[in-house]
């Protein structure tokens, strides 16, 4: 018998199968069936619902049968597939009575059946007739005996049919702890001392210390309450060794199942559930599903949940509008009458209870289900009035003349509420439309086509209001969904209009001034107003026309010319303005298109006006045509003829007609000197009363290259420059050059005379007259510490190479080697320059009236030699002596002097 802690319930298990011994006679014959024919169980006190009572075992001899267990009292007891028996409801066994049950096992495949009897009795009153009293003791597990071979040794293999039943321990036991569960024993403990131990999770592996074993007695105990929701079972291994640590028995597996207790309440996944259902839904319409979870074993009543609705708010139109599936949590409607306009939302309190909904022993929890009733189009729009009025000025487009207001009980801003307006009568020409204001849901009666007051003064429209969504089935538009709109048209002063516009007329060009062309009048659409119209000219590009302000008669003020640049494709457009005397005045415009017919009033002229022809190469003929601004037949074909004068024209040239529009001009002579010739050609058109004109063809006769093209010089001649002009240009250039050279020579000679005069002045003279002014300022009166030796002759200056490095002033000569220039003869020095400057400096210092012009100027040393020649003579202008100017001799005697000046020798 298995104790289950303080509950007083004993779990019955068969141990006989583990005590069968072979005793050296070979394996026993295994017969499937229950391990006992009669099971006894002592129960103390009352039994609560869902408690495990005992466990029946079936021996299938390793055949893996598929068994189905049945119990004789399924109302009070329930048997699981692996043999445990549980109570379904609370019952009490009297101290003097007992309960008899029958347990049946059936093979699903072979339909073979076995049965055993179970006797339940109270712990204090077991009847002797029911069987011998069973002393209170914990179950005992023997290590399976080892099979002895013929040689006397023991095999280390456990028989395949030894199956250790699991140990069932209820969770949340109150103790006392440690609580003994089972005793492990080996038959070898009779002959020698053994030590027992257990290993596995819960013993020596995490979580450690839950199960302990007495190493001498083999009693396995649990040290604290177990929680099935954390660990539902434990797998341990029992070991038996001697005092030397040698293994005496093969380890056996022990399975400890934690029996579930109802210690967890159901928990809803969400505390608030949201669902929707359309209004007007029929009973049985699915709404939503609520779900709850229970951590207890779902295979037992502890985890089997049942749902129900505790309350509904509001309870209109009925208190039971919804129901819930007690097992799945699905909520459906059970009554008709859902109306969003009356009750837009329902709030349900849902309860979930375990123990299959037992209100006495089950644990419960609640959640809230919020069900919104969604809108359907069950309310059509209704006009707030039967008739609406408005007015609109004529010819106005895009204006709103009336606002149509409706009411709709459906949810705003939804297709069931949004109104759509349709005109069903009173507007055959489609001059109105009624869009919907998205904010107010009003219909805006809008004019989309101009309305003429003279045609229609009033409109009476019939308008129907509908929703974007179709009405629900069975609901029709009421009378209030139709309204009448009366619109009054207001007369305004309309602009006069020309008819037709534009107006076209054809006349011949060349009409003289004051010619009456036509009458261009406008009409006033305001037939009910007495008004006069005045005319004026708005656009007349060539200023050819005039219009009478009173009657619109158009006449010319200048001759019409088709060839005018204001005429495009023979059309001349003029725009006129018609203005009435209404209040305010209105005006309209009209266009007069005049098609000018061509007259032969333009003589033809030659084209192109300029041509080229070679002196000698053949052919020396060119093709020409004529240009006439008139149109056919007043233009081509043309007749070409050479003029009679001057007489040499027909001697040098000949013209041949190639076609009606082209002719060929060619030279009669074998050679004609290069130049530009103007050839007069008489051209006559083909108009009625033909017109002739003498055109001058400008022909350039030139020397041609081998390709037949004029040379470059000849092109210059063609540009209008003859030989005389070119010679005159060259002479001007030469004279200008001579003047420049004479000016340079004069400036050089003047500088030389001024320098010689300064050097000959007596030092005793006024020092101020000897000081030269340069565009460079010195250092000042304090800058008197100058090395005047630097002003000695350059040939006597100490070389820079002997000066210390780093002390050279910026005004000294550079220290790098001087370039080796060709040595030239030095001019005689007028004297010691240093002494000359010192004498001038002393004279300036002794003169108190002299301004501070005594600062010394610093000059850089330029070297001892230069490749540049002297600039004191005209030799400086002979830099072009290397050029050959002999070709100037070929230009005539006027250029001979220039050739001698530039091309001659230095002499």
What do these coordinates show?
With 907 residues, this protein is mainly beta. The chain is built from 5 helices and 54 strands. A 4-stranded mixed beta sheet has the order 4-11-10-7, with no helix packed on it. A hairpin with a 6-residue loop joins strand 45 (571-580) and strand 46 (587-597).
| Uncertain residue segments | 1-28, 124-136, 148-162, 766-771, 792-829, 871-881
Quick one: how many beta strands?
A: 54
**DSSP strand content:** 25-35%
Count of alpha and pi helical runs: 5
Mean pLDDT: 77
Class per helix and strand makeup: mainly beta
User: Could you estimate the helical fraction of the residues in percent?
Assistant: under 10%
In whole angstroms, the N-to-C terminal distance is: 157 Å
Looking across the biggest beta sheet, what order are the strands in?
A: 4-11-10-7
Overall 3D geometry? elongated
Main pleated sheet: 4 strands, mixed
Radius of gyration: 68 Å
């Amino acid at each position: 018998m298995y104790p289950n802690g303080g509950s007083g319930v004993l779990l019955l298990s068969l141990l006989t199968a583990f005590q069968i011994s072979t005793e050296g006679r070979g394996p026993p014959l295994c017969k499937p069936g229950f391990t006992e024919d009669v099971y006894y169980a002592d129960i103390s006190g009352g039994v609560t619902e869902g408690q495990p009572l005992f466990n029946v075992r079936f021996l299938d001899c390793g055949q893996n049968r598929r068994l189905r267990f049945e119990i004789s009292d399924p109302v009070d007891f329930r048997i699981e597939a692996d043999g445990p028996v549980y109570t379904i409801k609370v019952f009490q066994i009297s101290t003097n009575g007992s309960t008899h049950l029958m347990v049946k096992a059936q093979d699903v495949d072979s339909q073979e059946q076995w049965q055993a009897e179970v006797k339940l009795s109270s712990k204090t009153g077991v009847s002797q007739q029911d069987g011998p009293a069973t002393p209170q003791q914990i179950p005992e597990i023997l290590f399976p005996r080892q099979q002895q071979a013929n040689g006397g040794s023991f095999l280390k293999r456990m028989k395949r049919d030894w199956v250790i039943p699991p140990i069932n321990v209820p969770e949340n036991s109150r103790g006392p702890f440690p609580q003994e569960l089972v005793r492990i024993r080996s038959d070898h403990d009779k002959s020698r001392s053994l030590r027992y131990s257990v290993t596995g999770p819960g013993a020596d592996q995490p979580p450690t210390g839950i199960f302990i074993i007495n190493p001498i007695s083999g009693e396995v105990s649990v040290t604290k309450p177990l929680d099935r929701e954390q660990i539902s079972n434990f797998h341990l291994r029992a070991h038996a060794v001697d005092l030397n640590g040698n293994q005496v028995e093969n380890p056996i597996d022990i399975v400890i199942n934690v029996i579930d207790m109802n210690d967890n309440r159901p928990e809803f996944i969400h505390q608030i559930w949201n669902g929707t259902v359309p209004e007007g839904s029929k009973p049985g319409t699915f709404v939503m599903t609520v779900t709850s979870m229970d951590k207890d074993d779902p295979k037992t009543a502890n985890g089997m949940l049942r749902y129900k609705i505790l309350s509904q708010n509001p309870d209109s139109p009925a208190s039971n509008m919804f129901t819930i599936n007690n097992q799945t949590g699905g909520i459906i409607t059970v009554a008709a009458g859902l109306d969003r306009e009356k009750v837009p939302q329902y709030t349900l309190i849902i309860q979930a209870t375990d123990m299959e909904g037992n209100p006495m022993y089950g644990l419960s929890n609640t959640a809230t289900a919020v069900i919104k009733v969604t809108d359907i189009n069950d309310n059509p729009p209704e006009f707030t009035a039967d008739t609406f009025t408005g007015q609109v000025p004529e010819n106005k487009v895009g204006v709103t003349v009336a606002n149509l207001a409706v009411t709709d009980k459906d949810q705003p801003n939804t297709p069931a509420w949004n109104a759509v307006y349709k005109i069903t009568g009173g507007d055959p020409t489609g001059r109105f439309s009624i869009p919907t204001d998205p904010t107010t849901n009003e219909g805006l009666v809008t004019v989309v086509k101009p309305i003429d007051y003279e045609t229609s003064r009033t409109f009476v429209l019939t308008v129907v209001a509908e929703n974007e969504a179709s009405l629900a089935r069975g609901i029709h538009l009421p009378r209030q969904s139709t309204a009448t709109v009366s619109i009054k048209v207001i007369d305004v002063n309309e602009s006069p209009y020309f008819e037709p516009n534009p107006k076209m007329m054809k006349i011949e060009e060349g009409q003289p001034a004051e010619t009456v062309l036509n009458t261009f009048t406008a009409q006033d659409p305001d037939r009910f107003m007495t008004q006069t119209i005045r005319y004026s000219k708005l656009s007349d590009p060539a200023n050819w026309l005039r219009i009478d302000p009173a009657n619109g008669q158009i006449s010319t003020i200048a001759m019409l010319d088709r060839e005018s640049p204001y005429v495009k494709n023979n059309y001349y457009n003029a725009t006129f303005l018609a203005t009435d005397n209404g209040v305010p005045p209105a005006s309209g415009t009209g266009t007069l298109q005049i098609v000018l017919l061509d007259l032969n009033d333009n003589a033809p002229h030659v084209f192109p006006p300029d041509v080229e022809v070679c002196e000698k190469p053949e052919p020396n003929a060119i093709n020409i045509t004529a240009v006439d601004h008139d149109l056919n037949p007043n233009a081509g074909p043309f007749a070409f003829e050479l003029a009679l004068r001057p007489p040499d024209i027909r001697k040098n040239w000949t013209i041949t007609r190639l076609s009606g529009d082209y002719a060929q001009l060619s030279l009669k002579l074998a050679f004609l000197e290069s130049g530009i010739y103007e050839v007069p050609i008489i051209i006559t058109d083909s108009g009625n009363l033909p017109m002739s004109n003498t055109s001058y063809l400008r022909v350039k006769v030139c020397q041609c290259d081998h390709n037949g093209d004029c040379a470059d010089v000849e092109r210059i001649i063609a540009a209008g420059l003859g030989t005389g002009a070119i010679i005159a240009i060259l002479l001007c250039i030469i004279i200008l050059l001579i003047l420049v050279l004479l000016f340079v020579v004069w400036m050089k000679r003047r500088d030389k005379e001024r320098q010689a005069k300064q050097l000959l002045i007596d030092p005793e003279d006024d020092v101020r007259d000897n000081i030269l002014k340069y565009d460079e300022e010195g250092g000042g009166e304090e800058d008197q510490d100058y090395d005047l030796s630097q002003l000695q002759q350059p040939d006597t200056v100490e070389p820079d190479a002997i000066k210390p490095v780093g002390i050279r002033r910026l005004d000294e000569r550079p220290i790098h080697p001087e370039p080796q220039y060709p040595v030239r003869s030095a001019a005689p020095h007028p004297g010691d320059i240093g002494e000359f400057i010192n004498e001038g400096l002393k004279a300036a210092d002794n003169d108190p009236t002299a301004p501070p012009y005594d600062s010394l100027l610093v000059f850089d040393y330029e070297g001892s030699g230069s490749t540049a020649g002297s600039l004191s003579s005209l030799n400086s202008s002979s830099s072009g002596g290397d050029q050959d100017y002999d070709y100037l001799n070929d230009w005539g005697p006027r250029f001979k002097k220039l050739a001698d000046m530039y091309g001659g020798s230095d002499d």
